[in-house]
Amino acid sequence: MKGNAINYDNYYTNPSPIWGKSKIDIELKKFLKLLDGKDVLDLGIGEGNNSIPLAELGYNVTGIDYSEKALEICKKSSSNIRLIHDDIRNFNIETNKYDLIMSRNVLHFLHKDDVLNIINNIKSGLKKNGLVYISLFSTEDPSFSFKLDNPNFDVIENNIFYDKATNTYISHFTKDEVLQLFCDFTTVLISDEYIMDLPHGNPHYHGLIKYIGQKL
Length: 216
Hints:
- Helix content is 23%, strand content 33%.
- The protein contains 6 helices and 10 strands, in the order αβαβαββαβαβββαββ.
- The strands form 2 sheets. A 7-stranded mixed sheet has the order 3-2-1-4-5-10-9, sandwiched between helices.
């Protein structure tokens, strides 16, 4: 593993969700019909934005997060989710266990070497025909150019930045790079979007790549 895991405990100063109302992402909801079963793993579950409504629909959800406060908020919102406090880089996913594994807006806060290891772990943990759903910062994200000119960040190869103050990494991706990471999967959806982030802080934009793939 490279660098520290980002701990969001400082963000969760209130006992209520800070990321907005829990609801299934439109992209994910559209393709739930492709799932053969109901076993779901959420890597970086946070407050459970997608997982809580999935649990309410009868899915068997396991959620992993490094923030104990986030897990406390998620537990208050839903008692039907199995919650585990762990660094997703350490978590060993059981082979051929899950019908859906998702990691939404999490993996870009890691070095790409760790991202690759997690993706390989995801591939092993999915059942045949299982789906993976991830979203990642793209190279079009406004913070990309900001970090290029910021002395607090070291520029590493392959669009990776090192935050010297926190000993953490931030990685940005291209669509081609994501497709290559899942070249052995069937691509169900891939998008490169520029969206406004409203649920927390001042309104700001992000460049995101969303990917859904199916294990052959």
